[in-house]
Batch of 2 targets.
Target 1
Amino acid sequence: DGGITQSPKYLFRKEGQNVTLSCEQNLNHDAMYWYRQDPGQGLRLIYYSQIVNDFQKGDIAEGYSVSREKKESFPLTVTSAQKNPTAFYLCASSISLSNSPLHFGNGTRLTVT
Amino acid sequence: GDSVTQMEGPVTLSEEAFLTINCTYTATGYPSLFWYVQYPGEGLQLLLKATKADDKGSNKGFEATYRKETTSFHLEKGSVQVSDSAVYFCALSDRGGGSNYKLTFGKGTLLTVNP
């Protein structure tokens, strides 16, 4: 079955360390996205990518970085510059950067202490 | 800019009760509207969508009608089940004057259905 795989499901890091969250899709979708979810705040867009080797900042990109070297993969790095990194991170994809629906992974819960 | 406002939760209902979750929006263009559902510990899943005024989206007993005159897209279900307990997100997709579509989410409404 096609879908989006995020790993790991839970991730723990010490403050000051960079950490990379994995996102892989086998839906053959061109567009991919990273969202951050905090209690009571809904979803906020971190980065998105329309095509391989291209990506754009979303609403809260500071302290994050991404790469899109392959169509299937869109890893997110949470750097030490992100002031409040503890959150639930969701990766999504869509056929294109249009109004087509998003398909989501099951998320990674990152805890930084 | 675009925005989505949905009723604050949590909403607690008994099984077989009628459900309404209100959603209103502000958009500069002609948006498509969506409801997504998030079950505990999981990502979001598309529940239903509507792409133009007066369209009705429906799925799994849930319905929502795109009302342009009231800029609303309220989610309804006639008889909820315990398995409907989840967080529900209203969202819109709009170009907002730019070249790319952007998806804007509401803050989510937690629904708990008791047996």
Note: Chain A is about 0% helix and 50% strand.
Target 2
Amino acid sequence: AQSVTQPDIHITVSEGASLELRCNYSYGATPYLFWYVQSPGQGLQLLLKYFSGDTLVQGIKGFEAEFKRSQSSFNLRKPSVHWSDAAEYFCAVGGYYGQNFVFGPGTRLSVLP
Amino acid sequence: DTAVSQTPKYLVTQMGNDKSIKCEQNLGHDTMYWYKQDSKKFLKIMFSYNNKELIINETVPNRFSPKSPDKAHLNLHINSLELGDSAVYFCASSQVGVQGGETQYFGPGTRLLVL
């Protein structure tokens, strides 16, 4: 069965520091991979997605993620974190009609001034 | 011009009551979903509809009944509400893209509190 793990439950970084959030997946076919962000009290916003092609994908708000098939990973990165990036981040793996759409448990990001 | 909208945003009710949550999308998508997010932020799919037909029905109590009057709307009706139903419910919609993958777009959520 497909699954997504996000090893870090909570990460704290200082504003201006770089960020990497880890995501590992288990999926029987070519995965479609996503990162979503949920600000406090808000819905989920799509940051970026990988379907095929270039394994380094760019997203909104200065985020990027790299798909590494050999490591079954899709880690999210940002070179310089802003205080407004404090939120919950979810990695997800999907397929057609949402049948295989599975979210990871989320990583909460705190940003120190 | 909200893409996926849900009403109400907050819902506080007593145990045993029946309530409905409405969802509408103006993206022209064929598929809509309901997710439940528990207190630990874990997201789990409940239902999926494609062109008004039920595609996915996860292990959800039959007190929960989705209704799709047309492909732009997917409502969730909950009978005999229980304390454990307290959660945030998200509606989402999606369309298969040219690359074959499907991107889901989420509504703002409905925060349900059962007392």
Note: Chain A touches chain B through 25 residues (CB under 8 Å).
